[in-house]
Amino acid sequence: MLEFKSESFAQFGPAGNSDDFFEEGNKSVYDVPKWLEKNGLGAYEYQCGHGVRISDDSAKDLGDIAEGKHIRLSIHAPYYISLSSVEEAKRDKR
Predict the structure, then answer these.
(1) Whose CB among 15, 48, 52, 69 lies 3.0–4.6 Å from 33's, allowing a Cys bridge?
(2) Beta bridge mates, 75
(3) Model-level pTM?
(4) Rounded Cα–Cα distance for residues 92 and 89 (Å)
């Protein structure tokens, strides 16, 4: 049997939650890692396109749950934040 480390390969997963996620009775972002694992997915992008609406503690909790399921997380920064901007206000805006 072929063995490999998943971090050596591309991981696939949704950006945000699909209708199926909710139709299956899931309600919370904390349900995402279990749902992804069940569906054979290994990554998730938390959406913050219109503002960061997750506390540091909640983000850490989500990270801990995802790590336990071997799910990679990323976050989509708000559209109005540009980390490469020369304008400090655009880099630091929440």
Answers:
(1) 69
(2) 46
(3) 0.73
(4) 5
Q: Which amino acid is at 24?
A: E
* Three-class secondary structure assignment of 23-88: HCCCCCHHHHHHHHHHCCCCEEEEECCCCCCCCHHHHHHHHHHHHHCCCEEEEECCCCCCCCCCCH
> Could you tell me which residues are beta bridge partners of residue 74?
45
Q: Which two tokens stand for residue 44?
A: 């998730």
Per-residue model confidence (pLDDT) at position 91:
61
Cβ-based burial of 62 (10 A; exposed 0-12, middle 13-18, buried ≥19): buried
- In the block, tokens 């880099």 appear at 91
